[in-house]
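Journal club prep — side note

Before the paper discussion, L.F. wants everyone to see what a predicted structure for a comparable chain looks like in C-alpha cell form. Sequence:
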Amino acid sequence: MNIQRLGELKTALGECPTWFEEKLWLMDCRAGLVFALNPDTGAVTARHEAPAPLGSFAFNQDGAIVLAMKEHIAAMSLPAGELRMLAHIGCSHPNLRLNDGIALPDGSFITGTMHLAREPGEEPLGGLYRLDTQLKLHKVDTGLGITNGPCISPTNGRLYVADSAAHCIYSYLMAADGTLSDKKVFVNTEPYHSSPDGCCFDNEGGLWTALVRAGSLIRFDQSGVPTHQIELPVKHPTALCFGGPDMSDIFITSISDSGRLSASGPMDGGVLKLTGLGFQGMARPLCRFPL
C-alpha cells in the first residue's frame, strides 16, 4: 500500500471526492468551490464557484452538477457555471445547512442537513431529503444532527447514512418510490474515538468511512465487523471515493479549517491518493433530472 499527497491543492473543508470521466472531482465547502484534478499529477484542470457554503454534489446525466447548497438543491451548468434552483427544503435557520449527498441508482438525489450549536436535548431541524427525477422533493427522515456519507450497498441494496453527531451509521430499507423503513444501527464509531464522516462501499460490500477525529479510514464488513483501519498523514480526513483505471485507487479529502476543526500539518487540507490496497469500488450513479 502506498499513500501520497495528490498535487498541491489545499482546501479549508475538502469534501465529496467523486470519480467522473477519468478525473477526480471534489469541493471546498467553505469556499464554495468545485475542482477537477488530474488523478496522476493532482493538477487542477477545472474550477467552478457557487455560493458558499456548499454541502455536496453529484453529476447529472447531461454533465451538469447537482449541488446541495445551504437550503437549496441547485443545478450548475458546465462550463458556463449558470445556477438553476431546483428545490428548497422548507426550513431555515442560521445553524442549519445541507451537507452530504449522492445520486441514487434511480437517478434521484439524496442529501441531508446538519444542525449545529443545538441546546442540550434540542431536536435537530431539517432531515434527510430525496429529490426525485421529476424534481419533487420528499423528506424521508428526521432527527439527524449531522448527515454524512449516504451510500447504497452493492450486496443488499440498503441505504446507509452516517449521523456524525450520534457517532452512528444507520441502514434503511429503501422502497422503489424512495420511502425509507426498517432503520437500524449498522455501527457505532465511539470505540474508535471519532465520528464517522464520508462513506463508500467497495464491490465486496465492505463499507469504508473516514474517522474524521482519528486521522484514519476504517472498513467494516457486511456484518459491521471492522476488517481494516488505515492511519493517514492528515489529522481530519473527511470523505473518500474509489477511482482510477480499474477503480482500485482511493482518494481522500481533508480539513485545514472547517470552522470547527483545524489542522496545520503539511498535508492537512490536501487530497490523498492510496494505491495497492487490493479493493475495488464502483462508479457512482448519475442524477437523471430534466434540466
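L.F.'s comment for the group: The longest strand covers residues 180-188. Keep this in mind when we get to the figures.
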